Amino acid sequence: MIDLWKKIKEFFKNRLNIMNIIIGVLLVALLLPLANLQLVKGKYYATMSDKRMYKSTPIKAPRGEIVDRYGNVLVTNNTAYNVIINHVGQTDEEMNSLIYRLLSVFESKGMAYEDELPVSAQPYAFTGALTDADKLAKWKKDNKIEETATAQQALEKLISNYEINTALYDETAVRKIAGVRYDMVQKLFNSRNSFTMMKNVNMEIISMIKENNKQFENVVIVSEPVRSYPNETLGAHLLGNVGSIYKEEYETLKDQGYSMNDLIGKDGIEKYLETYLRGEDGRDSIQYNTTDDGVVVAGSVAAVPGDKAILTLDARVQATAEQSLQRAVENMRAAGAHDANGGAVVAIEVNSGEVLAMASNPTFNPATFQDDYSWLSTDTSKPLWNRAISGTYEPGSTFKPLTAIASITEGVTGKRETINCTGVYDYYKPSYTPACWIYNDYGGRHGPLDVRGALAVSCNLFFFESARRLGIEKLNEYGRKFGLGQATGIELSGEASGILAGPQEREERGGIWYPGDTIQAAIGQSDNTFTILQIANYCATIANGGTRYKPHLVKKVVKYDGSEAVMEVQPEVVEQINIDPEVLSLVHQGMMEVVNSGVTVKAFEGSPIKAAGKTGTAQVSGNKTPNSLFMAFAPVENPQVAVACIVENAGLNGIGYNVARVARDIFETYLGTNLAEEAVYMNTLLTN
Predict the structure, then answer these.
(1) pLDDT for res 381
(2) What Å distances lie between residue 235 and 183, 320, 323, CA to CA?
(3) Would you say 357 and 389 are in contact if contact means Cβ atoms under 8 Å apart?
(4) What pLDDT score was predicted for residue 674?
(5) First to last CA, the chain
(6) In the chain, what are the helix, strand and coil shares in percent, each to the nearest 5?
(7) Beta strand 219-228 with 195-198: parallel, antiparallel or unpaired?
(8) Residue 528 and residue 500: Cα distance in Å, rounded?
(9) By the 8 A CB rule, do 521 and 499 touch?
């Protein structure tokens, strides 16, 4: 014992030992609170941290408005109220109970939550894409479900994962809770990413949640701007729609500042101008809990609305195009073309490429797009399909002006030369003897015709002979110059290229090109298929003397307050075709005679506007009823606007009045021939 005491005294005589002891005590004093903070009370403080964060509520920025060339609003915003759940460290049991109470509130007020869980309610079955074996296997793997699991077993696995107490809820409620929990996982719900459970709720639901706030702790009602369409269906296929971000999209978009609760442009102009329209979200009064009864307000950051998009569209012309096209379809059905089920029309400014109107029929209401999608996507009339840019059609006789320009410009057909139409073209006899339409329909013939007369009566033989002399290579050279069979590059997704008929394209599909195909291509048959936008732009190029512009829908983008332009689109010339003015005049005269006589005269009877146009009828593969086309430009003396219109499966009922009347209606609206209507319209613009 004495020896031990001596050793202790000797130890403390050493100053270094004393310093080590002091340092050791200090370290213990520091480490013990830290251990208590991290290990003992770590979960508590994490929860407190979450509570502080949930008080930071985002303010959604209004998307920028979309207006027509005169400022008429096409898309704007209304205010909606959304129910949002914040993650603040709730247990599974607490979360399931909260979801159940919210579902009960929604259902009591007639609102049903629609989840994305691909397992139906009883009788349990895999739904949607999971009816495909490969997609089902991937889904099971992604969700850590046994490969051989049935739909019921898969649901039971998820119920177990979410710790849903089946003793507390009936079978229907369990499935509904599981659906919400599944959506939360897909939306990456966590302490930094809230979950929007229900959008656009009514005031009754808001009142119930606020009046029972103790039952709905960590649930907030957030106002959010939602897209509004003052003109309902106007321009639906062009304007596009917005939708929720998919989990797959988020991996890319999160680096651009998006959250899983954001909406993004999915189609049309909404998609093309997403970076301009989206705006910058703000944050509501950011509050930090410091005690149970006190908060510190750190401030608020205002949202910045998105930029305003000004389109080339004329809302009046767009409305006229849609209404007149609908009437044309209805009239054709009434006339006996019972298969007439839709069509498209494009109006384009000939000296700039600006699209004034683009309509596809049937159409839909973008305001109810999400609710209607199920039936819209399965409707056999394809109302979601933008026929103006995605549909490809044989041009029929609307191709003949190109054949005329090409053959005369290349010197194989004389400007004043006449070609005798005998009814049957016998150059390739006896193996191939195609006939003119007048022979097929009436057993007749046109006799000698020059190019102007051939266009007026749409004589096949004149263009058969012109194309035989010209050759397919030269014919295709001009087709490409006019932009046929190639995408225009307009600001919309889903644009088709079509086909410019020729040996190369035929051989790529394993076929053989014959001489007879060349003369058929010259009258818009063979493999030729173009979009209505291409045909309208081709017509505009003929109208302005050979300058092909790139069609476009966006005129400019300005700041939301109009203070400055952030993007402006200038007319872009993509091809300058050298057309002899005399040749151009002959073609214009021939097209003008089409409008002033024959099958289209009734459509323009009494109109103060002089127009030039060309009809076209083309057989549809596998269908006995051909499509009906018409293209035209006006006024003839100073071309300003070109139109191309088609009604599917209209047959001869569509040639003449019904299709051409659409063009007339557009011309008169755009050119303002009704001064009384023009005055009312301008007054409306000034007061809006």
Answers:
(1) 92
(2) 33, 11, 12
(3) no
(4) 47
(5) 103
(6) 45, 20, 35
(7) unpaired
(8) 5
(9) no
pLDDT of residue 42: 56
Residue found by looking up tokens 């190029």 in the block: 541
Q: How far apart are CA 605 and CA 661, in angstroms?
A: 10
Q: Given this model, what pLDDT does residue 137 score?
A: 92
Give the H/E segment covering residue 350. none
The reported pLDDT for the residue numbered 177 is: 95
Q: Are 396 and 460 in contact (CB under 8 A)?
A: no
3-state SS, residue 575: strand
Distance, in Å, from the CA atom of 85 to the CA atom of 107, rounded to the nearest integer, reads 18
How long is the chain? 688
451: Cα separation from own chain's centroid: 42
Q: What pLDDT is stored for residue 676 in this prediction?
A: 40
Rounded Cα–Cα distance for residues 533 and 395 (Å):
12
For 371-400, how does the pLDDT look when each residue is reduced to its tens digit (9 = 90+)? 888 899 999 999 999 999 999 999 999 999
Burial (CB count <10 Å: 0-12, 13-18, 19+), residue 687 = exposed
Spell out, as residue ranges, where the chain has pLDDT lower than 70: 1-57, 284-299, 619-624, 652-656, 673-688
Residue with tokens 């029309």: 345
Buried b (16+ CB within 10 A) or exposed e, 446-466: beebbbbbbbbbbbbbbbbbb
